[in-house]
Amino acid sequence: MFQGLVAAAAAFLASAAIAADYPTKPIRLIVAFPPGGGVDVAARVVGQKLALRLGKSIVIENIAGAGGNIGAERVVKSPPDGYTVFFASGALTINPSLYKNLGFDPMRDLAPVSLVLLTPYVLMVNNALPIRSVKDLVAAAKSAQAAPLQYASAGNGSAAHLFTELMISSLNISLIHVPYKGATPAMNDVLGGHVPIVFDSIITALPLVQAGKVRAIAVSTKTRSSVAPNIPTLDESGVPGYEAANWMGLLVPAGTPKDIIRRLNSETTEVLKDSHVKEQMKELGAELVGSTPEAMEAFLRGELAKWAKVTRDAKIQLN
């Protein structure tokens, strides 16, 4: 027993020493999607400022594929030493419900550092439709005379798909899903009048709304967007309790020393106070959050449970 205590004490002291010197070399920031997308852009903004605060370079590595699963698995299999950090997104809490053989458990194999931001989605309709509110949408969906309404999405299992299914179940209406291979073709067909309804990220949706090319009905977050305060939330539009957003945040491999996690959390919190970061994120339509590791863990558990129910009720699965 004494030897065990000595070994545990030695391991603790070694971990503390490593954390005290951290970082001593460049850090890899893994993005599970291709360069140029919203997750990648946000990661580069945060990574640049975080590198300045930590005093070491941060190298962005884009490891795309399988809806974000390949990049996540690369992080899970990396040494838990603080030199591999995951800039994760909502896919991390959706994919466990979509893939039977995921290969990792987000809550078991990853340790939360901090939430970074939330990005609202915007519910939109083609301008030709006489729908100007969620109430109008419900009436149109329940009209016995009208043909069933269709909605577009970026593909089966995409955030747009699940966000719409959550709304459908909350409103007790029926809409027909039309999946596309990406958000751009889905939006193009809504603009062209081929499919009347779509949920899309505020990053790409807002310029179209502001140009009058499509009509915004509601945003998906619990509170109104700071960049589009005139668009009501679904919660205040007759869908009580509705809340959905694409989140982004930092995680590390499970087993990473807590002192390192605390250092990363502390520096990330300061980064999110930076005026330059705030301005750039505002341009993306993102709402900066910041959190403790414990608050992020609770958030992730809630997201996992939410999307597990949605995919189960809507019978959505990718493999």
Describe this protein's structure.
The chain has twelve helices and eleven strands. With 319 residues, the protein is an alpha/beta fold. The strands form two sheets. The protein has a six-stranded mixed beta sheet with strand order 2-1-3-10-4-11, sandwiched between helices. Strands 7-6-8-5-9 form a five-stranded mixed beta sheet. It starts with a helix and ends in a 6-residue tail after the last helix. The relative contact order is 0.19. About 2% of the residues have low confidence.
Q: Could you state the order of secondary-structure elements as H and E?
A: HEHEHEHHEEHEHEHEHEEHHEH
- How would you write the strand order of the largest sheet? 2-1-3-10-4-11
Helical coverage, percent range: 40-55%
CATH homologous superfamily grouping of the largest domain: Bordetella uptake gene, domain 1
In CATH, the architecture of the largest domain is 3-Layer(aba) Sandwich
Regions with little confidence, pLDDT below 50 for 5+ residues? 6-11
Radius of gyration: 21 Å
Count of beta strands: 11
Please tell me the overall pLDDT: 91
CATH class of the largest domain: Alpha Beta
The main β sheet shows up as: 6 strands, mixed
Principal-axes geometry comes out as globular
Backbone structural class:
alpha/beta
C-alpha end-to-end distance: 48 Å
